[in-house]
Write a structure and sequence with these properties.
This protein is mostly beta strands and 187 residues long. It contains 1 helix and 11 strands. It is 13% helix and 57% strand. The chain has one domain: lipopolysaccharide transport protein A fold (Sandwich), CATH 2.60.450.10.
Length: 187
């Protein structure tokens, strides 16, 4: 089973279970109203979801206090998301923000409002923190991109740029334009 199909299958099973649960509650409610395609069809609270690779190791983890799914455009609003993308033999990338919107399952996730990407130090790179107003992520490909202003902080160094493309598997970050940096040697 492919990674994307497994993710979609898990999310669909969760959505169906919560849909059935919410329909049962609404059916017994005296003020139950008919729903339209612009209303939510499922929601989850206190979510901690893992996606495993073919060897049974975690490849992705999503933690959020609340998710809301809409059928009309197959999108999911995610509040205070924390997305962890695991990599073989390296530290994971952790992405947080105030809000996110996932499309087509979790094929693409758009983060906005105080986006922070954190990569703990490993044997090849120091601790890295990237801040930007918004960010698009493809969890399956483990890529991220933005056209917004970014700030990259590493020990003794700060780099600012407009736009970036990142391959989180290899750990490469391509700064797109207006790049400037500041280096402060340690003591």
């Amino acid at each position: 089973m492919s990674y994307q199909k497994m993710i979609i299958g898990v999310l669909l099973l969760l959505a169906m279970g919560f849909s059935a649960w919410s329909l049962l509650i609404d059916a017994h409610s005296p003020t139950a109203a008919t729903t339209s395609s612009t209303t939510l069809d499922a929601f989850m609270e206190g979510v901690e979801a893992f996606v495993m690779d073919q060897q049974g190791k975690p490849s992705l983890k999503l933690v959020t206090p609340k998710m809301v799914h809409y059928t009309d455009n197959d999108t999911t609003d995610i509040f205070l998301p924390q997305l962890t993308l695991y990599r073989p033999a390296h530290q994971p990338w952790i992405i947080t923000s105030q809000y996110a919107k996932a499309t087509q399952g979790i094929n693409q996730i758009f983060f906005w409002n105080n986006v922070i990407i954190h990569h703990p130090a490993d044997y090849s790179t120091p601790t890295t923190i990237i801040k930007t107003p918004s960010l698009s992520v493809s969890p399956e490909k483990q890529t991220a991109w933005t056209q917004e202003i970014i700030t990259v902080d590493q020990p003794n160094m700060t780099v600012r740029a407009k736009g970036m493309e990142s391959d989180m598997i290899s750990g490469t970050i391509k700064l797109l334009s207006q790049t400037s940096g500041e280096y402060v040697p340690g003591f």
